[in-house]
Design goal:
Blueprint (H helix, E strand, L loop, with lengths): L12 H10 L6 H8 L12 H4 L10 H9 L5 H7 L14 H18 L2 H14 L6
């Protein structure tokens, strides 16, 4: 039996559909991935008590990424966000290579989005697109 290689950013289809519906014009999440491929992607976090105390298990990280973060002393999303300046700092963590950094940063972005109320999702995406220079200020 052949094992399928799983994309580290495979997300529920309904979440991707929702994000695409909240993007302006004909822009899709696939378009955004193409634009930012190989570049650092900046995200915004709206910190609240629930997010601060959320365990990484809620983000469905791979075992490698999860173990690397735990060995580095991080157990919640809040601990990670409060202690890193940029996602490139994650590469300094033992066993946290580029694939793990990509997975962690992507899942944090999707998790943040999924926790927002429906009425705040479109504005969040617009703010992230502006921050990354994809949309004009």
């Amino acid at each position: 039996m052949k094992e399928e290689k799983r994309s580290v950013l495979q997300m529920p289809e309904d979440l991707i559909v929702d994000m695409n519906e909240n993007l302006p014009g004909d822009l899709t999440m696939e378009d955004i991935q193409t634009v930012v491929k190989g570049k650092s992607f900046k995200v915004i976090f709206y910190m609240n008590e629930a997010l601060l105390s959320t365990d990484f298990a809620d983000m469905d990280l791979s075992v490698r990424s999860s173990n690397a973060l735990k060995r580095a002393g991080y157990h919640t999303i809040g601990e990670l966000i409060e202690n890193i300046e940029s996602f490139s700092e994650l590469e300094k963590i033992k066993n946290c290579g580029k694939t793990s950094v990509y997975e962690i940063s992507g899942r944090l972005f999707f998790y943040q989005y999924s926790q927002l109320s429906k009425d705040k999702r479109q504005q969040y995406l617009m703010d992230v697109l502006k921050l990354n220079g994809i949309m004009p200020e």
